[in-house]
Specification:
Largest sheet of chain A: 2 strands, antiparallel
Helix content of chain A: 40-55%
CATH architecture of chain A: Orthogonal Bundle
Number of domains of chain A: 1
Shape of chain A: elongated
Number of strands of chain A: 2
Oligomer: homodimer
Strand content of chain A: under 5%
Distance between the termini of chain A: 43 Å
Radius of gyration of chain A: 20 Å
CATH topology of chain A: Arc Repressor Mutant, subunit A
CATH superfamily of chain A: Winged helix-like DNA-binding domain superfamily/Winged helix DNA-binding domain
Structural class of chain A: mainly alpha
Strand order of the largest sheet of chain A: 1-2
DNA sequence: GATATCGTACTCGGATATACATTGTCCGAGTGGTGACGG
DNA sequence: CCGTCACCACTCGGACAATGTATATCCGAGTACGATATC
């Protein structure tokens, strides 16, 4: 089972957006350049985030993407769901009801194996929902040295004009 | 993100094997027939379980697959890992260190985003590890009607000879 | 009648095609900024 | 000098191709069972 790498890309991109002043955004090209990623593919993933309402898109010159909500109100789950979709990883196809001997269990009750995987995914989802972009940005700020912060502000100044 | 349907196939197959008397097994063809699945593909998945040591294979006439351990000692995680492998779903490629401005955070410490996904997968894994085949079989037995149990034993008698 | 041997049917195991999803790229649609032009 | 208009550059958005992974199948390797022939 492999998660799309788009999740990693957009998670880092949103972290950067969350570190900007409210209402300020960056173009998809700039977000891609920041982590040395393929610009066109990054743009495709940002579109998914825009459709999901995590970010807002601003077209035209000087446009780009900016967070649609405050960093505290965007969780890693929101980003994951925007990229991967809301379908669970485990899809029960009810094979217990197929075959020459479907007489195991009560079909009015959910498949037990499906129920276990469902519980597991709920636990996983809860962990992702517990962390917002604000938490991540705060963590990064704590680890950051002054020299590196200056490097970041210089790059941002160049991009924001 | 999508889990291989082989996980569902083998989980149900192992549940059936766990319901048999200790040391008794079934051929891959019989396991496939039981849930009306493609026999050759079912065999391929059972091979993965055999490599992982979840089941033992017996070649030759009358052979097949049987559980390598007691049902209580086989968890859904064992089956998942045998099919999907042990690599995590989220692979951190350390893109935070790439690009023109890699100066965010302390690289000696793990990437915060990766850490969150790691915690989430740990929670997910714990849930799967908490359920053994014995638990699942017990649950099915509780839901089962006498008529359906008779149907199962008849089919098994035909297959086991 | 007992035993050793051969043949056969059955099963696993891995190598080999196919279908589908993800990844990656491109060009058109839309929008704000900018410069020229006229009042 | 100021307002308006048209053009242009920039950005998003979705359609289109390439690649990789999961799905599906087949044929060869190996083993136990049973029949047969011999002692």
């Amino acid at each position: 089972m492999k998660m799309s790498e788009g999740v990693e890309w957009t998670a880092h991109a949103c972290t950067l957006l969350a570190a900007l002043p409210p209402g300020i955004g960056l173009s998809a090209a700039a977000l891609a350049e920041f982590h040395d990623l393929a610009p066109a593919y990054m743009a495709k993933h940002m579109q998914a985030l825009a459709r999901a309402g995590v970010v807002e898109s601003v077209r035209g010159a000087g446009g780009g993407y900016r967070l649609a909500r405050k960093p505290h109100d965007v969780t890693l789950w929101d980003i994951y769901e925007a990229i991967e979709g809301e379908e669970p990883a485990f899809r029960c196809s009810e094979i217990r009801q197929q075959g020459p001997c479907p007489g195991i269990g009560d079909f009015r009750k959910p498949c037990e194996i499906n129920a276990i995987f469902g519980r597991a995914e709920t636990a996983w989802k809860a962990e992702l929902k517990s962390m917002s972009l604000a938490d991540i940005v705060a963590d990064l700020a704590r680890k950051q040295t002054p020299a590196r912060r200056a490097q970041l502000t210089e790059w941002l100044g160049e991009k924001l004009g």
